[in-house]
Amino acid sequence: MITDAHVGRSYPPTEPYVVSREKIAEFADALGDDNPAYRGSSPVAPPTFAAVLAARAWGNLFGDPELDMKLAQTIHGDQRFEWTRQLRAGDSVTATLSIDKVRARGNTAFISVSVALDAAGEAVCHAISTLVHTWPEEATA
Amino acid sequence: MSDVQTPEVGQELPALTLTFTRADLVRYAGASGDFNPIHWSDRAAAKLNLDSVIAHGMLTMGRALRIVTDWVGDPERVVSYGVRFAKPVPVPDDEYGVDVHVTAKVKAVADGRATIAIDARLGETKVLGSATAEVRLD
Question: Are B59 and B114 in contact (CB under 8 A)?
Fold first, then answer.
């Protein structure tokens, strides 16, 4: 189970994800946002598209057997982004996750993680999240 | 008439009403890759004691930011954005969906940046807590 002993743990960067015009338009459509900045030949991504790339790194948590975490038992508590610039079509982005803080309360853990998004080595966004994970009662008895 | 370049503390941004339908959740699931079944299966939602499927927190967060990006025009101006997912947004399986009302106010202006406090409500219930975005004004 994840505990404060795991604070400081980080994982290798994800495989690069290349942001495409088509994906940006699809994501803007899903937000119902017709801002012209998200369309045309050299669009920027809607700011919260960063979550899609950060979530790729969250997979590290669920894949780490020591942490015993399952996506279906995880709730998104809060989310913050700090951008150096917005993502653009053509960016090849890696995501690197670190565990910053773990607070346990009964069978629930509040896990603060940060994900650094880099486009070809350039830091573009920091995505900071609290994930709330609950284990079944019997697991903590 | 408001001027984005020189906003005043306390100034309100034009309000926004966001409608969420089941189709919107399916579209966001596909576009974001977040296929958590609580966003499309009433059966999965019931297991977590939810009355209905709920919107992705990131969908509510992403759509609410539009109050800021519509106001500044260029989304490149957004330098930070944070929210707490205070309450879920249950989305009924009907043709009307559910409305979330978004308002926003300039909270601070300093060093070429404006801090915007965003309020998103379903009826009287705040669905986002401490929602704040920061934009460049240059």
Answer: no
Nearest CB partner across the interface for A30, out of B28, B76, B130: B28
Q: How far is CA A52 from CA A68, B45, B138, in A?
A: 23, 22, 28
What average pLDDT does the segment A37-58 reach?
A: 96
The CATH number that applies at residue B106 is 3.10.129.10
Residue B121 lies in a domain: yes
Going along chain A from its start, the domains and CATH numbers come out as 4-140 (3.10.129.10)
Determine whether the interchain pair A27/B32 forms a contact, defined as Cβ–Cβ distance below 8 Å: yes
Rg (alpha carbons) of chain A, rounded to whole number: 17
Please state the pTM of the whole predicted model.
Answer: 0.94
pLDDT of residue B135 exceeding 80: yes
- Could you tell me if A9 and A99 are in contact, meaning their C-beta atoms sit under 8 angstroms apart? yes
B48 phi, psi to nearest 5 deg: -100, 20
**How many domains are there within chain B?**
1
The C-alpha of A8 sits at a distance from chain B's nearest C-alpha, in angstroms, of: 23
List the domain range (segments joined by +) for residue B119. Answer: 16-136
